[in-house]
């Protein structure tokens, strides 16, 4: 008869010692679906700026603050709702986030003014921001450590998949039913999966086991991890719980780490600036070019497809070549692609091919930066270092749409917009080179690497 070992880390012991089972695979699948819904709602407006501007009587350039309000809400949601999940449970917060961005996506379809649009997109962002951290936490809790990186990468692939779905739905629904119908589709998608999520998504066992009143619920979940299990050890509920010490962000600047911290923040912010300026504004900028009307939507669909491919390949490439080399190469190749885009005649086939390759590089690099951050900090401050890098990076995601709106307002052509995007990529490249050289010097003076 299977038993659960009576150890301080009983849950992680069970998960790490067993192969991936049906429960874990179902959880990862549900989280990919949720991430795709999140990606749909985050990116859908980029396909709809032109029709929305015409319908609401607004200049296209005024949508920069609208994009930024969504991303500001996303940042606030991530910071505020992730701690709430530690108190009331991840499943409750996740379903609440899904309900929030579903309702406000529906309200986006009903907006009649610029002020209403700013408000509902900010509130949509709150729900979107709270979902992803809890998805990742659930996946990490239920996945064996040896598979955790692959599982998280797979979940993150859901976001560009959702952006692709947004483009494909917009391409078919927009001409027939208008932009409001696209937002209604985005609101209905999570509702279709709501019942499945409620019935199938497991709550965090670590959260449930804080009280013995949840013994029956914990037993049902653990029995799916260990088929045939009949009893649970009391240590699952009454084991001592030591509170992890709070790590001050000041630690990121102590012991000579201030340089790597500041240098790491630069590529995070610059890469997200590039990513969100492309996702938000390329369809609008292309509408003034002499290309077929649907080219803008196809461009973002292919850019998102490139993101899926880049994210899947990133881990393997970094294992073989090293994080620094892969990231430096990605920004170098991206700059070559931008120069090709500027020099070649603007034709749909070449432009779409270049956008696909840019998606591989830029979105792959975003996944790679998380791995680099984990290498640069010692274990005791690693979570703090990654969290602050992601938080500072969000500044770039807010600035990207604002600067894109400014360029659209100035009447810049697509080649000019991409030439401007060379500047943040050069900043990111210089920062990565400085990190690489700094680590080489550190390794030369200390032969045993610490990262």
TrEMBL record:
Keywords: Membrane, Transmembrane, Transmembrane helix. Residues 27-442 form the Major facilitator superfamily (MFS) profile domain. It is found in: Membrane. Its main location: membrane. GO terms for cellular component: plasma membrane. It is a multi-pass membrane protein. The chain crosses the membrane at residues 27-49, 61-81, 93-112, 118-139, 151-170, 176-198, 262-283, 295-314, 326-346, 352-374, 386-412, 418-437. It comes from the Bacteria. GO terms for molecular function: carboxylic acid transmembrane transporter activity. It holds the Pfam family MFS_1. CDD domains: MFS_PcaK_like. This is MFS transporter. The lineage of its organism: Bacteria, Pseudomonadati, Pseudomonadota, Gammaproteobacteria, Pseudomonadales.
